[in-house]
Amino acid sequence: MKVLRYILKKEFKQIFRDKTILAMMFALPTIQLIILPLAMNFDVKNVKLAVVDNDHSPYSRQMIAKIASSGYFRIVAAESSFKAALKYIEKEKADLVLEIPAGFESNLVREGVQKVGVSIDAINGTKAAIGGSYLQAVIIDFNKEIPVNAGSHAPEGTIDITYSNWFNPLAEYRFYVVPAVLVLLLTLIGGFMSALNIVREKEVGTIEQINVTPIQKWEFILGKLIPFWVVGMIVFTLGLTVAWVVYGIWPVGSFVTLYLFAAMYLVALLGFGLLISTYTSNQLQAMFVAFFFIMIFMLMSGLFTSVDSMPAWAKVIANLTPVTHFIKVMRMIVLKGSGFADVQREFLYLVIFAVILNGWAIFNYRKTS
Question: What's the whole-model pTM score?
Answer without folding.
Answer: 0.76
